[in-house]
Predict the structure.
Amino acid sequence: MKRSAENMHKTAEIPDTPAQPPGLLMSGHFHDYLPYRVLRRQGTRDWVLFFTHEGAGRFIQEGVYFETRPGGLVLIEPDAYHDYGCVKDLVWDFSWAHFIARPHWLALMKWPLVGKGLRALDIQDSTVRERMRGAFERCLGDSRNPQSGLNDELAQNAIEEVLMLAAREQRFSEGQRPLSAGVRRAMEHLTAHLSEPQDVPNLARLAGLSPSRFAHRFKEETGDSAIAYLMKLRLREAARLLEFSGRSVKEVASDVGFESPFYFSRQFRRQFGLSPRAYLRKMAR
């Protein structure tokens, strides 16, 4: 919906709302009525994420009027025009976060465009909504607690959880089937027993399937074989340990289930494009 010339004139007279400092993850929980409004003509240098709990919020751009309701997620891209606030006569209860996107998050944020640099997704599942609410609460608590140097990392992890849940729900809504109970049990087992030896027959028993049927279904539902999925889990955990634990490459390799440091280094380089030692040096800068 295009704004009238009168509304455009009124907007021109309103000063921009101060932006959050770029580079810092900041979050909050807002609950209010009109006349709450944020206007930033040049946008911000970071991403802004909204999750509506109750009521409704509105987003306006030239030729665009979009409302978000309970369960609605909205993303504003860096440098995109901001004009958002409460819908008339309705409270807007929502969580928000400003953040710099990690590179691997970008694939998770390809939500439908509803405006220029404005993306939205509707979460229907009440269980997923509640999980997202909890993730935003953890993000808020960690981002505002300066007592530990790892709190920013924990806040980032909470945002990543929201983005991953959203990406999964988007895939389901586009016709991709949810994981079957057997495959989900196998994945949970692999995550919980990361460093232990694993094999397809044992995983198949956990899933209640024959080995051949399990292998086919796991690949069909996840896009990876069970062993390839386990390898990715181990390498992702190894990268985290190298960055935060202070342990040596050899110790980290053993921690995540690799008997051979040489094989670990080869697989790590294949996954991340760097040797473990080079990765460690890069993270220490």
